[in-house]
Every structure is written in C-alpha cells, then in structure tokens.
Amino acid sequence: MYELFDQYFITMSIRLLLALLLSGLIGFEREMNRHSAGFRTHILVGVSSCLMMLMSLYGFQDYLETYADIVRFDPARIPSYVISGIGFLGAGTIIVNGMTVRGLTTAASIWAVAGLGLVVGIGMYSIAILTTTIILLSLVFLNNFERYISKRELRVKLEISMYDFQELDAIFTIYNHFNVIVKNINVDNENEQDTKLKTDVQIGKNTNINDLYYELLQLEQVKQVKEV
Prior knowledge:
Layout: H1 9-32, H2 39-58, H3 61-66, H4 77-91, E1 95-97, E2 100-102, H5 104-122, H6 125-150, E3 153-162, H7 168-177, E4 180-188, E5 195-204, H8 209-217, E6 222-227
Antiparallel strand pairs: 1-2, 3-5, 3-6, 4-5
C-alpha cells in the first residue's frame, strides 16, 4: 500500500516548492506586463511539469521492485509527452490580428517554464536556477531595450474615412512619401458612402505626423483622418 509520507516525500516537496518559486518569478514578470498568461498560469505549468517528472522518477518504484526482472523502466517517457503537449497551451496565448502577431514571448516562456519544472523534478537545481536567471534577465532587460528602440519610431493606428476606394493608391503614395511603413491593413466597406481604411503604421522619428494628416486630408475623397 502506498504510504502517505514515504522516504521520497521531503525530496519531492522541495522540488515542487522550488518549481513553484522559479516558475512564479517568470510568471510575475509576465503578469506585471499584463500578458495573457501570467503568474498563476506559469506556476501551474511549472509545478505540474515538475509533478510529471516526479511521477516518472518515483511513481513506479514499488511496481519496479516487484517486477524488476521483466519491466524496462524509461524515466524520460512521461517528460517527453509534457514537452510536446505544452505547445498546445502556449499556442493559446498567441494572437494573430492581420499581419500583427502577439503572445509569442509568453508562449515561449510557458514552454520554458515546463522545461524548468522537468529539470527541477529530476533534481538539477543549480542549472534550473541559472536558467531562470537567464530567462528573467532576457525578459526584463531585452524588453526595456526593445522599448528604447521603439521610441525612435512612432507606432500608431490611423482610421481614414473615405467616400469610396478611389483614393487608396493616393493614400499609399503619401505613406511612401512620408516613409510610413504599413504593418496592418483593414478595410471596412459595409456602408458604400462611408468606407473606412484602418492602418497600423510605423512612422519614422523624422516624420511630422501633422504634415502627414494634412496631406491625407487634402485628398478629395477623404473625409476624416483620426488616430484610434
């Protein structure tokens, strides 16, 4: 009969708590930046992965002792399913909107936390702590670096109301003139008298956005330009 507190209980408890701490640190960073998968999600993934690893290592001890001569034991079999299966959870955090993709970093962090749980579960504490440090430094400092780079270029969403599609070519000509990079395009033509062109654009630091608005409003078929 399985004992409630066997000889491996303290070892397993320490590993679960360490997985809780390390995955929680990464999840806390995601939570602070208001991402879809945050503190609780990362903890659940990390602790559950650790649990699967512990089950693979210690869950079959009694069975193996009884049938040691006829049973072949592979402790990597269950973790391999964790690694492949966690991709479905990570994919759920990825949001695709036109040509814009969000959530890739969070999906990657979930996959990394699953790996951390497995590593802690097998007892590789030092490498788990080092990996957590590397991941946190990457998320925090590289995120700040990306923000510094993005400050050099303005990213805005413009909604241009038109009478019809005749001015589309002229609009993109103006965009090219002002070195505006179009990241995403969406056309709303439910009302023939009020066509709306919604563009997610990147404006260079040397471009005057007011001049861009003025040039767009000079087009005959353009009724309104606004930032949304």
